[in-house]
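pasting for the record
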Amino acid sequence: MASHPAPSDPSSLPSPVTTAGRDGLAAILARPHKAVLAFDFDGTLAPIVPDPEQARAHPDAVPALAALAPKVASVAVVSGRPASVAVRYGGFAGVPGLDHLVVLGHYGAERWDAVTGTVRAPAPHPGVAAARAELPGFLDGIGAWQGSWIEEKGRAVAVHTRRAQDPQAAFEALREPLARLAQKHGLIVEPGRLVLELRPAGMDKGVALGEYVREVGAESVMYVGDDLGDLPAFAAVEKLRSDGIPGLLVCSGSTEVTELADRADLVVDGPEGVTHLLTSLAKHLGTPSDRRP
């Protein structure tokens, strides 16, 4: 596990434990105006809470992003949530310094940018509405689901088990039945931290991140995530590395998911550790005028 504790001194920049991660960080520090910094929302910029509708960005997250964003090519939030919901829960709109923030919602199917304040999105997949309509009756026939609940996500629908009497047992019991339901409606199931999301195939954070990095013309990239849905983004950074674009993989650590920590160059202590990292990175980058060629 590529672990590193959150620094007690906000100006102390943690060091990645892998050579690729150190190369990625060095490239960001050397040419920040050519760097894309991308972040998951839930569990990364916002603490995980029992009710996802109550999720909000860590109090220090937006100030840290606002201090960092003017010094780099772009800051992007890549979320499974609808873009407008991530913007609202994050408090990203109208923040000085976040003028060019981009939110890639629904795994990149939606895009909000601070310049226009609007969301661009294609028509939703019809299978999502069909699965959503069938879910309540479908779940009624499965004894293990009591205490779980359905979250409407617009272009996806999710079943959470965090409130169940035995959350992990409910999660495991629902995986196969929900996979069958998803297949019936032309969808896939994306597992996460005690949540199973039914959504269209071809939507993932790796595709969204890779396309955005190339659109911006970035020469380096950092991605920070915490859950299984972030694995494709990790894979995208690894692919970019193989194409000659240095990258830094950061895990917002938790005890619920270890797969990301095992592949990360750097592990920080949840959203608080992420804000420490951002604050430290902003201090090391100086002012935008200091870094422009």
